[in-house]
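Backbone-to-sequence.
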């Protein structure tokens, strides 16, 4: 057995609404909000970045796992907004949670699925016996070019999962995983470029839907299960509509994805998206229930997971559920939002 033994989420306090962004650019905010299925997004403050969000999410994960940081044998931080181009976020997190120095650490990059790639690595290391526990984090303070479609959805947040192999500690067993990867140029950012570029509508059918469908179908064939065998489903959430569409294509009822559909309230947290959604499901899932998870990263690829909740979940819930945590917020206008973004970029 190997799987999740602890989980944690961190989301910034500040929010900006889609209508406020649209107001500045003289666009119809209500129409845009309805079109993308997002009401508002979380905004990182001047003293928050992908690293600070990771540290807080990691501390919460250790709290639910009920283990000290020194027990971790590996930390992998997936993000496309690491604060340093050359200096590992994972090493900073390791020191902050007192996991150093006997520690394997690395930063991962695969757009929005870099966090789940870390989960797969930790799973392999735990199952091979190389480490006792591994920490995987998906984190981003996502940026979109002003007045670009991404500016209306790109949010900030972090999700952390601790992977272990002790039967009396695993709260959600990862039964299997399957990945589907191709070179599809739907979204990219060159070195030194301030903002990413994307291929517009091309990011939908040949990118997001193709890869998640390929990963999920591959996983289901591998484990000989059907979509209806799962009680919950969590898909990567670039907006509030795509996850509903992909669920419908598999015949999955919308009620099975609502608990993990967080983007409408905090925006697309990129590498944190599917992991935060999974953490929200773990807040309420009951022993024996099954969870289907599929991340997606531009560039492009998808990681799918079959997860079964165990009886240990009842004693290892997060103190504050994700849906409760994100209710604590304060709103920023566009000027404040732009000011914080410039401070984060060091301008």
């Amino acid at each position: 057995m190997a799987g999740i033994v602890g989980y944690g989420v961190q989301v910034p306090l500040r929010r900006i609404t889609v209508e406020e962004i649209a107001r500045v650019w003289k666009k119809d905010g209500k129409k845009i909000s309805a079109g993308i299925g997002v009401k508002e997004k979380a905004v990182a403050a001047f003293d928050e970045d992908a690293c600070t969000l990771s540290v807080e999410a990691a501390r919460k994960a250790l709290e639910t796992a009920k283990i000290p940081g020194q027990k971790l044998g590996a930390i992998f931080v997936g993000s496309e907004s690491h604060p340093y181009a050359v200096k590992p976020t994972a090493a900073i997190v390791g020191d902050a949670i007192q996991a150093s120095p006997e520690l394997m650490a690395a930063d991962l990059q695969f757009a929005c699925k870099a966090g789940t790639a870390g989960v797969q690595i930790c799973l392999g290391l735990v199952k091979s016996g190389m480490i006792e526990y591994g920490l995987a984090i998906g984190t981003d303070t996502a940026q979109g070019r002003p007045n670009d479609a991404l500016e209306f959805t790109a949010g900030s947040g972090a999700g952390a999962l601790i992977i272990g192999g002790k039967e009396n500690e695993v709260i959600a067993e990862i039964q299997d995983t399957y990945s589907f990867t191709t070179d599809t140029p739907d979204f990219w950012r060159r070195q030194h470029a301030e903002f990413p570029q994307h291929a517009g509508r091309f990011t939908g059918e040949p990118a997001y839907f193709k890869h998640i469908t390929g990963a999920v179908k591959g996983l289901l064939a591998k484990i000989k299960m059907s979509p209806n065998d799962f009680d919950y489903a969590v898909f990567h959430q670039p907006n509030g509509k795509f996850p509903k569409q992909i669920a419908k294509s598999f015949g999955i009822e919308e009620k099975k994805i609502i608990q993990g559909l967080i983007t409408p309230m905090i925006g697309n947290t990129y590498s944190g998206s599917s992991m935060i959604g999974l953490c929200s499901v773990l807040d309420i899932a009951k022993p024996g229930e099954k969870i289907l998870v599929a991340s997606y990263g531009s560039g492009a690829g998808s990681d799918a997971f079959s997860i079964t909740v165990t009886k240990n979940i009842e004693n290892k819930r997060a103190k504050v559920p994700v849906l409760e945590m994100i209710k604590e917020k304060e709103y920023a206008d566009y000027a404040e939002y732009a000011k914080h973004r410039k401070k984060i970029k060091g301008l």
